[in-house]
Amino acid sequence: MLSAQERAHVAQVWDLIAGHEAAFGAELLLRLFTVYPSTKIYFKHLGVCPDEAQLLTHGQRVLEAVGVAVQHIDHLRAALSPLADLHAQVLRVDPANFPLLIQCFQVVLASHLQGEFTVQMQAAWDKFLTEVATVLTEKYR
Predict the structure, then answer these.
(1) Which of 56, 62, 130, 139 is the S-S candidate for 84 at Cβ 3.0 to 4.6 Å?
(2) Where is the Globin domain (predicted)?
(3) Which is nearest to 24 in space by CA: 67, 59, 61?
């Protein structure tokens, strides 16, 4: 459970990246595929150029899902249930990939936001994204 201050940090960071979902999402996916090549197995159709249309589109969808989680931070299970069903039952994504995605997202945030992404913000986002990953993996049980 996030504290009021942690929620504020999550919202503050989201305000900084909102409107740039496609670019942040594409970079996140490229970083994930580069650092953890085995994760690309689910995305064989995506290119590896930052400005590739399909990569930008999927990156935007990933970040839009994060935006939904930010907006429904108190009701993550209900808000993310369809996404959890999709990943667990249809796509059958290995749940071990979610922590890898979180790690890469933290690096993307830190590289872009630099001094604006304080230690407190990083800790709040780590906790928040871990909760999101937990919700997404609950459907696997």
Answers:
(1) 139
(2) 1-141
(3) 59
Q: Provide CB contacts within 8 A for 67, sequence distance 6+.
A: 14, 18, 21
pLDDT tens per residue, range 77-101 = 999 899 888 877 887 888 888 999 9
DSSP 93: -
Which tokens go with 8? Answer: 């504020």
Q: pLDDT per residue over 117-141, tens digit each?
A: 999 999 999 999 999 999 988 887 6
Rg (CA), the chain: 14
Q: What CA–CA distance (Å, rounded) separates 113 from 18?
A: 13
Considering Cα of 137, then 67, then 60, then 16, what sign does the dihedral take? negative
